[in-house]
Amino acid sequence: MTHTPVPAPVQAMIDAINDADTDAFVAAFRDDGFVDDWGRVLRGPEGVRSWADSDAIGAGARMTVLAVATEGDTTRVHFDWRSSVFNGESDGIFVVAGEKLASFTIPPVH
């Protein structure tokens, strides 16, 4: 991955996490958007909010982008994550649809 600009919808989600702003986090997603965290899929505003509450903002998360690669509507981000749930580097796959996120996937590490 190379350092390329982070698409605005992706940056909005990252900023929401780092600003501890759950409403902004949910607003970064389309109404039919989802978070897929290692196969645990949480859909729609309620699902996205529940993930933010349990695994991100509610866990005091901080997300630091280390590398970005975008092709079409898909952006892959390698990031450092610090929270009360998980600490370490991980990868995220974001799908952008218009001005919002269609999905944020954290794939299992193999």
From TrEMBL:
InterPro entries reported in the protein's UniProt record: NTF2-like_dom_sf, SnoaL-like
Domain of life: Bacteria
Coiled-coil zones: none
Listed Gene3D superfamilies: 3.10.450.50
Pfam families: SnoaL_2
Residues annotated as domain SnoaL-like: 10-83
UniProt name for this protein: SnoaL-like domain-containing protein
